[in-house]
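Q: Structure tokens for this one, please.
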Amino acid sequence: MTTLVHEFDWPDRFVVGTLGKPGERTFYLQARDGSRVVSVILEKEQSALLAEKVDEILDQLMLEDGNRYSVPSSTPVELIDEEPLDTPVDGRFRVGTIGLGWEPATAQVILEVIPVVEVELEIDADVDTEALEAELARMAGLDELVEAAEPEELLRVRIPVGSARAFAKRTLEIVGAGRSLCPRCGLPMDPEGHDCPADDGL
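A: Here is the predicted structure, written as tokens:
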């Protein structure tokens, strides 16, 4: 099987954005080059972690040999992007694994996004406990098998350091723009109300 690779070497735009109201938002990672747009679905937590890791890479590079790659400490004003996602938004796949790398020759951060691998496990309702345990033991190495499987498609994006810093800033802002947190219990509050665990027993 040949993997379909959506490759963007110098994208016009690379952002995380959302669709839906707070509490029901779907997060998308979107790359655009001219009229070509590819969007993939990811979790809020994946978005936050990705942005934090991109910032970490950039911060480390700033310390190398007097910042030889000219990594900005903050987002360059001309790269600030507050626009919504390009429409129509069609999620190609749900993100499973995200890889980050660095290309010193072009001073670019490289992101490789691979879909979730779904494995179907059918167990007969009448199976006895011993047979079930044997089946689970047999599948103990499944993670290695899944890891080795070649994905049907993936998204690979290379972005320069300024765009990477802008990507991280925007992503963290979008992650933080969701539901407000309850000052009493720390859980997200919905616009229509909040059943606060701190009220239990009062």
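A few notes: The helical segments are 44-62, 129-138, 142-148, 161-176. The beta strands are 4-8, 13-19, 26-33, 36-42, 91-103, 108-115, 153-160.
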